[in-house]
Prior knowledge:
By secondary structure, the chain is α/β, with parallel strands linked by helices. The protein has a single domain (56-194), classed as Collagenase (Catalytic Domain) (3-Layer(aba) Sandwich), CATH 3.40.390.10. Helices cover 34% and strands 15% of the residues. The chain is built from 5 helices and 5 strands; from the N terminus they run H-E-H-E-E-E-E-H-H-H. A 5-stranded mixed β-sheet has the order 2-1-3-5-4. The radius of gyration is 24 Å and the shape is globular. The model is unreliable at 1-17 and 25-44 (pLDDT under 50). It comes from Nocardiopsis exhalans.
Amino acid sequence: MTKDLVTPPSSTRRPLAPRRPLARVLAACTTVVLVIALGAVPAHADYYSGGVGTTRFTVRYGAVNDNWIGYFNTGRINWNNTSNTNISITRTTSTSVNRVITAGRYTENWYGIYSPSGTRANRSFSIRINARRLAEDSGSNMSAWCRSTSLHEFGHALSLADNPNTTRLSVMKHSRDRTRITPYAYDTAEVRRIY
């Protein structure tokens, strides 16, 4: 006589046995261990895993005019001037550097886009700022919006996510004051927390 390997219809199935207390204790202990282990790595609603693995890195500017060099410098230098963050974003002209920021008149509707590649320890990225869209939406504040967008995109390189889960002010929020060209206290606190 062989056993039937077909599952019986639901009306003839026996209900599952209740979990034993030991099994519940083991499941709870496993959950606690996982929570503690996962909490040891920088994982937070405001953490962006596409950032560079350090607050000290070099960036190359794409082929842009002096106005854009000024906008990029403002974003870069204003991060560098934050307190107790150890941020140092330097500029180079070396084409061997694979961390690039540039601007152009793109047909898409974003203001800026950060595209990372590689591992966190060996991160490269491309930042593109959309001059067309900024010109359309900024009114008389074009210069400030370009600086603010550069600052925001460098925030991604520093592992900050878009639209952080906070009621505090942040340059990473899409609803921010786009004339703001320096990081808020929340932004610098997040960089310190992550690094």
